[in-house]
Amino acid sequence: MEYERYISDGILERYFLGFATPEEEAELQIHLDIFPELQTEMDAVERRIEKAALKDAVPPPAHIKTALMQQIAAESANQQSYTYKVRYNNVSAPDSNHKMSVHIGWKIVLIVLLSMIALSLLAAIVFYMATIQK
What distance in Å separates the CA atoms of residue 48 and residue 43, rounded to the nearest whole number? Predict the structure, then answer.
């Protein structure tokens, strides 16, 4: 079967570790829809990789957790107080006297574009006239 190639070649392991090529990932997604056995094997591979990672993991010192939790709490308090302080003052509809302005760069781009179109049309006409005179 086709899905057995994924199991024997280690493509599933490369996929979970992030080493699979984009082509392999796309092909794997297609085969996951076709073969439910492949999804079962993917779950098993994921559990094996997770067990191996947790088996060799070194737990961090206890004081790091408390320091991180204090820092997260301080940042979330600052973020919450900041989001509530934002206010929009002096928001009003524009006057009828305001005119829309366009940046000079866009004006130059428009002029160049129109010039290129005009020159292209002129070149086509000259080429057409030259082929008629032959």
Answer: 9
DSSP 90: S
Domain boundaries, the chain: 3-55, 103-134
Round the CA-based radius of gyration of the chain to a whole number and report it.
32
The amino acid at 49? I
Which ranges of the chain does DSSP label H, i.e. alpha helix? 3-9, 11-17, 22-34, 36-55, 62-85, 104-133
Q: What is the distance between the alpha carbons of residues 55 and 37, in angstroms, rounded to a whole number?
A: 27
* Beta carbons of 30 and 24 less than 8 angstroms apart: no
The pLDDT tens digits along the chain (134 residues) read 566 776 788 888 888 888 889 998 888 888 888 888 888 888 998 999 889 888 888 887 888 888 888 998 888 877 665 555 556 666 565 666 666 678 889 999 999 999 999 999 999 999 999 998 86
In three-state secondary structure terms, 45 is helix
